[in-house]
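Worked example

This section walks through a single chain of length 487. The input is the sequence exactly as stored; nothing has been trimmed or padded.
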Amino acid sequence: MAEDTSSTSKVGQFVNNKILPPVMKFVNTKAIKALQNGMVYALPFIIIGSVFLIFSNIPVPAIAKVMTDSGWAAFFSQAYNATFNILSMWAVVGIAYVYVQNEGFEPLPAGLTALSSFLMLQFLQIDNPIKTAMSQGVKNTAGTVVMKSSVVTANVDKLPHALQTLMKAPVTGCINITWLGGQGMVATIIIGLLVGWSYSSMLRHGWKISLPEQVPAAVANQFSAMIPAAVDLLASMLIFAVIKTFLHTDMLQLIYKLLEMPMQGISDSLGGAIVIGLAVSFFWFFGVHGGLIVGAIAGAFLIPNTAANAALYHAGKLTLANGAHIITNEFYNNFINLTGSGITIGLVVFTLVAARSAQMKSIGKSELIPAIFNINEPFLFGMPMVMNPFLAIPFFLTPLIVAVSTYAVIYFHIVPPLNGVAAPWTTPAVISGFLIGGWKMAIWQFCTLVISTLMYWPFAKRYDNYLYKKEQDKLAEQQKGDEKAAD
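Given that input, the structure is written out below as tokens.
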């Protein structure tokens, strides 16, 4: 035990002195704080929209047909499209809002400026439905092709050339909802941070219209916002003009192709699963909130994956062949962090079933209810898991094994991809599995609980024996002391 503690102490000193300071410095930057707290503003719409998504595409054919025939599936689709499916809109407002708020200025005008810039930097148009039909055919509300693309093309070709050109031209004067969802997320982060930074910098340097003190604050704040907002919006317009003129695209599509697609490829790989699986436990082991650090960074890449899967699920095309992602934000929340960081439910089971030491028994009882709702701070600090060499191996390996095995069962089509439903992270295991992937995923999630139990059991038993011996030695010393006092 002394050797274990000594080696752990040396590693802990190295990590605390060399690794954690730059990591914490990065995590506490203004940009990461704005990203971490700003994305929270999209969370209610993601969760509520997930409920609408489930009802718009119920995975029971008989019920789904009733919903479609009655028209209610379309109503729920409308609700999904106006909540979850435009999460980039909520996020861009939230990121700029939090950035400027943290700088001590009135935040709402900055959030609205970011939203206006976000819309200004994209084409306000969609492809003509006729052009889509010429490549995909005409489909009914159930998604069945009722007219082949070749037939559509043959009929369009019979029309005068001027009419053909008009029918193939994009529909302008509208917002393309494609870029308001997950595909616009990286652009959302960039725009939200840039607007938040530039807006607050201009206010800090006095770029504002100051009104007399007698003017109501609500009015004065809007005049203060005019110059920073005007500069940001003018810059957005010029950027849009340059990209459209010389690159024949818009900023959102450019960012998606150059940044978001490669980032999604990395985060959606087996390597991404391994890194995320290890990172949370690594930071927690040294006493730093791993969930906050990893969640803030990984969420920027995983939430778009969730949104993309949700769109495929909504369209009835949720397969890997159609581009579904394996690693989504729910992969992180409902598997890597299942029952809390380190997936410590197996340790809870041991403390309730086989523990002999008073310490493990008491902490196990206090952790049972929180663990059901994926909260394990009582274990992290009470057991403790932090800097504990006895439990380090399962604490690191259990999330890693679950991450890799979950990746594998989806990759090899044993269970379907996660459907994009955003179950709240406090949703109990198995229930959350059913919500995010159906009955097969619920069964697999139960299997991960068994994996956790098998992983923790031998290490927990060793630690329990160590604690029990200490307690018995202490009790024996107290008894000797009592006997001496009695004599």
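What to look for: The chain has a mean pLDDT of 87.
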